[in-house]
Design goal:
By secondary structure, this protein is of the alpha/beta class. 41% of the residues lie in helices and 21% in strands.
């Protein structure tokens, strides 16, 4: 049976009871949790408070599928203790240095996580993201592809793949050997005006699943064809919406995604 999760970053400042209520309203029984400063549990409190959060969610039939956090030992330990199998990260270096030197430094950093992955049996998933860094699936695999997929996985993100202008089937093929999670949101570039030189200024606009540059039907069809059995994660990211509008868009997009996956 297909598994779906929602990233609860938009509701990271809600109380735990309110978070549970929202997750149920959205129709999910699994989440990706932002184990970050400012959320219901932060990394410094992970070993103490994450088990309590996991327990409170489990009492309501909700599990944490993975966490978006920092790959430090206390986070690995907390995930292992609570049965959470993956930590999600991204590679977004600043533009002040040579990119290849930054990539090489990051490879050494990833290498330092391997003993923790093996000790705690928790994977680190590296997600592509538009901008500088692993902005395309191929960029992501330049890093991820050098490591054992049991320890380091690739997270394909439909919206960021859209912003990179990728062919969806090709992108999925490129990361398939290490694919551990598929994110379903969508995006396009939108013109916001002109700069002082008269050049058009475009920014990323995160939109409903049917309105972006990546075809969800093609992505789902190709993932199913290749035998994808992982979670279908909904990051619930939309541009310039109220909290209530975000909820309604997330509900509608989940309904559509389910119809594609299960139809």
């Amino acid at each position: 049976m297909a598994q779906y999760s929602v990233f609860t970053k938009p509701w990271r400042q809600e109380s735990v009871p309110d978070l549970i209520r929202i997750i149920k309203e959205l129709g999910y029984n699994a989440i990706e949790f932002p184990l970050r400063d400012g959320a219901q549990v932060c990394p410094a409190e992970a070993e103490e408070k994450l088990p309590k959060l996991v327990g409170a969610l489990a009492d309501e039939g909700i599990r944490i599928d993975d966490v978006a956090s920092t790959p430090e030992e206390r986070v690995f330990a907390a995930c292992a203790a609570t049965g959470i199998g993956m930590i999600r990260v991204m590679f977004n270096p600043p533009e002040s240095q040579d990119y290849l030197a930054q990539e090489d430094a990051y490879l050494h950093e990833v290498d330092s996580w391997l003993p923790l992955c093996e000790k705690y049996h928790v994977k680190v998933g590296i997600q592509m993201h538009h901008g500088r860094g692993a902005m395309t699936t191929a960029d992501m695999m330049r890093i991820v592809g050098r490591f054992d997929p049991r320890c380091i996985g690739a997270i394909w993100d439909a919206a960021h793949s859209a912003l990179a202008g990728e062919n969806v089937e090709q992108a999925i093929d490129i990361c398939w050997s290490h694919l551990c999670l598929a994110n379903f949101k969508n995006a396009r570039y939108q013109m916001y005006g002109r700069d002082l030189n008269g050049c058009a200024v475009y920014k990323a606009y995160f939109c409903p699943g049917a309105d972006g540059n990546i075809s969800w039907p093609r992505a789902v069809e190709h993932l199913k064809k290749k035998g994808y059995t992982g979670t279908w994660c909904m990051p619930a990211e939309y541009t310039d919406l109220s909290p209530e509008e975000e909820k309604q868009y997330t509900i509608r997009d989940l309904k559509w995604l389910k119809s594609l996956v299960e139809g």
